[in-house]
Amino acid sequence: MNIVSIRIITDNVARLVTFYERATEVRATWANGDFAELRTSAATLAIASTRTVPVFAPGSARPAENHSVITEFLVDDVDRAYGNLRSFVTDVVTEPTTMPWGNRSLLLRDPDGNLVNFFTPVTPAAVAKFTR
Fold first, then answer.
1. 5 and 37 in contact (C-beta within 8 Å)?
2. Which SS3 state, helix, strand or coil, does residue 11 take?
3. What number does CATH give the domain 67-132?
4. Could you tell me the residue ranges of all domains in the chain?
5. What is the mean pLDDT of residues 63-70?
6. 47-56 — which CB contacts under 8 Å span 24+ positions?
7. Mean pLDDT value across residues 99-108
């Protein structure tokens, strides 16, 4: 089994896609006005409109109510990423900080309030974990 994608449900697909395209420098592929995907070599971030929820189960997902999931992006240099993000990210939770497990992490919120972590492994153990 493999994790293929994470899907964020939102009331404003265009706004969230624009944010993630700018933050990740990955261009989205749009299926239609209600659904877009940002594909990386490891996984896909899908962004879908609340209008898609009834297809699965009416009322099962609500936008901008996540308080437990952090979407994480591995980057080459988190400090450089922070420099690029500062011009448009309005909610930085934690500026780049080296965590006890060896990653240098930047925690922020997207326009819907979802937590997003950009990180770079910096200790030998952390680097080894992400070297393939």
1. yes
2. coil
3. 3.10.180.10
4. 1-58, 67-132
5. 91
6. 47/7, 47/8, 47/10, 47/13, 47/16, 47/17, 47/20, 48/7, 48/8, 48/9, 48/10, 48/13, 49/9, 49/10, 49/11, 49/13, 50/9, 50/10, 50/11, 52/9, 53/9
7. 97
Which pair of tokens denotes residue 70?
Answer: 């952090």
Q: Reply yes or no on whether the pLDDT at 82 is more than 80.
A: yes
The predicted model scores a pTM of: 0.92
Looking at the domain covering 1-58, what would its CATH class be?
A: alpha beta
Average per-residue pLDDT for the chain: 95
How confident is the model at residue 132, as a pLDDT? Answer: 65
- Considering only CA atoms, which of 15, 52, 57 is closest in space to residue 31? 52
Q: Where are the alpha helices (DSSP H) in 1-132?
A: 13-24, 53-56, 78-85, 124-130
